[in-house]
Amino acid sequence: IKKSLPLCLIGDSGTGKSHLLIALGTEAAMAGFRVKYVLATKLVNELVEAADEKQLAKTIARYGRVDLLCIDELGYMELDRRGAELLFQVLTEREEKNSVAIASNESFAGWTKTFTDPRLCAAIVDRLTFNGTIIETGTDSYRLASTRARAEQQAVG
Question: Lower CB count within 10 Å: N or C terminus of the chain?
Answer without folding.
Answer: C
